[in-house]
Write a structure and sequence with these properties.
Blueprint lengths: L15 H12 L4 E3 L6 E3 L2 E3 L4 E3 L6 E10 L13 E2 H14 L3 E12 L12 E3 L2 E9 H6 L1 E3 L6 E4 L1 H7 L1 E2 L17 H4 L2
């Protein structure tokens, strides 16, 4: 009998941030479900925005994930930690987390992309190379995000966390996906890590 590798088709995604996120998750062999964003779930009288992914890490809490793609660096080459989302994104995540119950946790996954550098950093620099760009994956819990959000203006129907609050609370996505039983169950805030 010949062993052949199992190939699983990825969802057809025009959004390169979501495509990179899915490829990264699949490279880690974490079971995931990519949802169809073109259709809205029926919830009461209203439509409900679908999350982008449902993740089932073996040793962690199941995750309801909304992926938000952002440019990694501004024109001056600085990282701005841009993190705005729409109110529709938040409303959908709150409602899905409630429907799925205590076995799930909603997170916002921020995917930052930048061109591959001509003289790249060592391979262990935390970047995931996909379709000619380098991606870095960060996430913040929905509860933390809501507790520290501020409006970008009513016309935008968007909110964001102040950059300082965001930097304190955002964690590498891998911390939300423990790969062994001994991994942390919930990401540890920076100020508690140094104790």
């Amino acid at each position: 009998m010949i062993d052949s590798p199992i190939t699983v088709a990825m969802a057809q995604r025009s959004n390169h941030y979501e495509a990179a996120f899915e490829a990264f998750i699949r490279s880690l062999r974490i079971p995931c479900v990519a949802t169809d964003e073109a259709k809205r779930a029926v919830f009461g009288e209203d439509g409900l925005k679908n999350p982008d992914f449902l993740l089932y890490p073996r040793f962690g809490t199941n995750l309801v994930v909304e992926v938000k793609g952002k440019r990694a660096k501004n024109a001056r080459g600085r990282r701005d930690w841009e993190n705005w989302v729409t109110m529709d994104d938040l409303d959908g995540l709150v409602r899905w987390q409630s429907m799925f119950g205590p076995g799930f946790r909603a997170i916002l996954a921020f995917v930052y992309a930048e061109p591959i550098q001509p003289f790249p950093l060592p391979r262990e620099n935390g970047a995931y190379e996909f379709r000619g760009l380098e991606y870095r994956f960060w996430a913040v819990g929905l509860d933390d995000y809501i507790a520290h959000l501020r409006s970008r203006g009513p016309a935008w129907k968007a909110v964001a966390m102040a950059r300082r609050a965001f930097r304190r609370r955002v964690r590498p996505l891998l911390e939300w996906l423990p790969m062994s039983y001994h991994g942390p169950r919930r990401p540890i805030p920076l100020k508690e890590r140094d104790k």
